[in-house]
Amino acid sequence: MYLRQFSVHDAPEISSWFSSREESLLWGGRVFSWPIETSEIIKRSHQKDIEFLTLSSGSDVLGFIELQHVSLNEMRLCRVTVSPKFRGQGVGKALVTLSLEEIKKRKQYQIVTLAVFAKNKTAYNCYKSLGFIAVDKAPKFKDFFGERWPLVQMEISL
Questions:
Q1: How far apart are CA 130 and CA 144, in angstroms?
Q2: pLDDT digits (tens, 9 = 90+) for 113-142
Q3: What CATH class is the domain 2-157?
Q4: How far is it, in rounded angstroms, from Cα 142 to Cα 58?
Q5: Per-residue H/E/C for the chain
Q6: How far apart, in whole angstroms, are the C-alpha atoms of residue 53 and residue 10?
Q7: Which residue stretches of the chain have pLDDT < 70?
């Protein structure tokens, strides 16, 4: 398994990983519409201060992660996901671990942050197992269709 830069050819595969609006919201919040359009992913990949990486093995795309350059010393992990074909096999942990290693190589970042919905227990436990800690920062929830979804803000020092 290795990390590589996102290619526009990855977008159709990634957009196919979400079978419901709830899955889409858990992953992308309001950043993408439902159903997720390939063109939306490609358009976002061109935004300044955002970097898309994929976890790959041979020709398979196993996972996807968005890195947001928040400041000179903070990087934020967003939109972390694993292909449904590879879930439950440690791929998410490998994706985040390799992403942290890539961020460390850049030597300027001292902190990596992320937010995870409280109901996404699998992701929360993955981040916690890698050393991320919950911190008391806003936002603490997002509203979707009249429902309030609690968010956990997390960070790790490099």
A1: 29
A2: 999 999 999 999 999 999 999 999 999 999
A3: alpha beta
A4: 37
A5: CEEEECCHHHHHHHHCCCCCHHHHHHHHCCCCCCCCCHHHHHHHHCCCCEEEEEEEECCEEEEEEEEEECCCCEEEEEEEEECHHHCCCCHHHHHHHHHHHHHHHCCCCCEEEEEEECCCHHHHHHHHHCCCEEECCCCCEEEECCEEEEEEEEEEEC
A6: 10
A7: none
Tokens for 120, please give them: 């996404």
Q: What is the pLDDT of residue 131?
A: 98
Long-range contacts: 79-82, Cβ < 8 Å, 24+?
79/27, 79/28, 79/31, 80/27, 80/114, 80/123, 81/14, 81/17, 81/27, 82/55
| Token digits of residue 104 | 């460390």
pLDDT score of 38: 96
Alpha-carbon distance of 4 to 99, in angstroms, equals 10
